[in-house]
Request: fold
Amino acid sequence: MIKTSEIGKFWKTLSAMTLVGFMFIGLTSASASAATDHAKIVGPTQCTECHKETGAIWESTPHFETFRKMPRNKKGREIAKNMGFKRIKAGSLCLDCHFTSQPKAKDKLKPIAGISCESCHGAGADYIKVHSSFSGKKKAEETTDEAKQRWVKSEAAGMIRPQKMYDWAKNCYACHTVPNEKLVNVGGHTAGSDFELVAWSQGKIRHNLWHTKTNDEAPEARKRLMYVVGQAVELETSIAAVGKATEEKDYAIKMTARVNKAKDNFAKIAAVLDLPEIKAIAEQSAGVKLALGDEGPLSAAAAEIGTLARTIVEKYDGSKMAAIDSLLPSPDKYKGKPIK
Reply:
């Protein structure tokens, strides 16, 4: 079992690692690239051609800047060297999270941008034409029903739209935690950032230009739902990561700490929200016994939490979750200031 004394040491040093973690939010090919068909990546310019304002916001964020800054970063080069990578952009593990990549000759990937549209919304080759076609008409001529059908077809083709909160939250947490033991224990990578869905989505990377023209903050109800879903996905992701640990070293210790923190946060949610799915997640996480080499049971527990989180998104809109308002991060806790 993981030593609680070591967990305590970790949390005392977390603040010192936050800056590094902000730039180095990596993960393994076992999670990121398994969910991304790189052959279907079209690149951000295909999106920003129409979404110009959103593209301008993106270009001012760390997601955009990682393409240029990360390969020059001293810590990044040190991690790459420890892992045996000659160049960060040359087919290394770093491509999975820090870049948007397309296939290159001889089964290699070529990074074409930093963390971009398709990192969150899914590889676009199958949906981008449907998404941008206005049903074969000019935008003003498309009927409401035609637009609705276009959205349905886009989602069926793999587009992750904003209301599919569980799906894009999974993409966020997949890169803001690091389910790769060697990358942490050998590479010296952090085990993820101090990520929380509301604080990070409402800060500098915010691009809420679909419902507002001035990049306004998300409504209270949506922030409540984001907080609940975010804590559930944190539980799901970190529990699964502990299940893959093989050594009682840095990786296992830090992932265990992430699980325990998310457990505490979700227990607070369950104490004030009497919803069956939330109670079930709290009970599932409370019953989890964290142990090295116990991947089967822990993966099963994580999967169940994921199923419940998806159900929450499908059933609730956050309007009746006001009881958790005191748990939400205040604007001064948001990660950076959004572009207006």
Observations:
- The chain has two domains: 4-124+159-333, 125-158.
- The longest strand covers residues 108-113.
- The CA atoms of residues 26 and 175 lie 5 Å apart.
- Confidence is low (pLDDT under 50) at residues 1-34.
